[in-house]
Amino acid sequence: MKTTLALAVLAALSTSLHAEVNITGFASVNAGKVLSGDGVPQYDVPPTFLADYPIVSAYTDEFSFEPESLFGLQVKADLSDGLSATAQIVARGAENFDATFEWAYISYEINDSWTVQAGKKRLPLFYYSDFYDVGYAYVWMRPPADNYTWQIFNYNGINLLYNGSIGDWSLSANIYGGREDDENNKLLSEFFFKEQTREIWKDILGGVVTVSNDWLEIRATHMMYTNERYNAAGEKVIWDGKDYRDGKFYGLAMNADFGNLFILSELNRLDLGGNLDTWMLSMGYRFDGITPYISYADFSQDGEDGEDHNTTSIGLRWDFHSSAAFKIQYDIVKDNSYSLAVAGDSKSLTFGVDLVF
């Protein structure tokens, strides 16, 4: 049903007589397996590499193409006079290739600097949030999973964009607000709690500022929200005597590109009464169309019983075509959590092709 609806909307947009329609696409055909791993026996988790937390993209010791393969289409209809509509539809192997809307919003360009948008968009928490699904846009197989772990990654709301410059620096900013109500949150329902869990992030209010010159880019972000959660019985989850909790997210990314050598970094903190800190550091070197790289990512939570894991990755990207890249990556996961073990230690190998069209 979802696939049929998505295709019908695409057809309607592409045949519109009142708009200039631009259709672009992206795809990833990836495969891999866990070479060795402990799993988490007390939670009946077999040897597993959790490559993407929000959609539970997980590799096991069985070779598979499903966890990270995907196909996406983005349709933008320009209605003239600064008004446009954008829809992005993605079919993921981790979700049986059932096509669903990831984005659906309208934009109005107030002037050359300011744009207002409303609808469903990706939460701009992380540096790679806006193009996370477009594997061709970054060097790794995926942005480091320890950094990109949260349950909610989309929101419904409104945002205001600014683009300008200060001297030799480009400046962009985004102020946004809204909410997301996920009646059957995939990460909580299918992986952590093993029962239907409704996750609500409401009263979302956040901002992003990015400045860049010819070799350095700095991105800072902050978001506030209120979290409510319902268990399988429809009862509200209680935290410290309250049926809600307030969260504050802080993020800083700094990327340096010296031509062939590049260094990527990201540091994030989620304050939910206690702190959940994530960070990653990556470095690579371009040899014509071949780019070897290495990265390290870490997740740590306050308290001795908190969640604590890290991933060391070594990989290579080969741009064998102007619109396609082959990647191969070896990941070593150390799960140091005491009582909140996620998937245990593992060593995994993944590879695949990312392309845009």
Automatic annotation (TrEMBL):
Q: Is rRNA processing found in the keyword set?
A: no
Give every Porin domain span: 6-354
Q: Which UniProt keywords apply?
A: Signal
Q: Is the keyword Nucleus assigned to this protein?
A: no
InterPro entries on file: Gram_neg_porin_domain, Porin_dom_sf
What is an example of a GO molecular function annotated in this UniProt entry? porin activity
User: Pfam families, alphabetically?
Assistant: Porin_4 (PF13609)
A GO cellular component annotated for this chain's UniProt record is: membrane
Regions crossing the membrane: none
Highest taxon of the lineage? Bacteria
Signal peptide bounds: 1-19
Q: What is this protein called?
A: Porin domain-containing protein
Q: What species is given as this protein's source? A: Pseudoalteromonas tunicata D2
